[in-house]
Amino acid sequence: MCYVISIGCLYVPLSQNLAFPPNLKNLTLSGCRVSSRNMFLVGNLPNLEVLKLKEVAFEDNAWKTEGKFSQLKLLQVEASDLEIWEAEAAHFSSLQYLCLRGCSYLKCTPLELEKFRLFSISYCMDVQSLL
């Protein structure tokens, strides 16, 4: 099952009471503002394998990863205002592909990059700080 949430106006807050089907495998969030609560709910979807965050604004420009993302294989963050990303490798135990595009404010990534099959960075201010 695939779910796409796209808001016409950029950075409209996503509802705090948003419920996703538990069998959801593919989720794209686009043009919205997400809170820690939103990302916690997404992270606890038991079957989520693909998560794409396109033009998503993070609360306080930060993502302190909570939730397990236990089945997530692909994570794409594109054109985001994300500056700080806190996570442990245990949050993304099944992650194989990580793609960061247009994340020019991101200061560093917390993950051990060498474990991913594919890692892509483009349009970042200081690529060296991400490696």
UniProtKB/TrEMBL annotation:
In terms of superkingdom, the source organism counts as Eukaryota
What SUPFAM superfamilies does the entry give?
RNI-like
- List the protein's name: Uncharacterized protein
**Per the UniProt entry, what species is this protein from, by scientific name?**
Olea europaea subsp. europaea
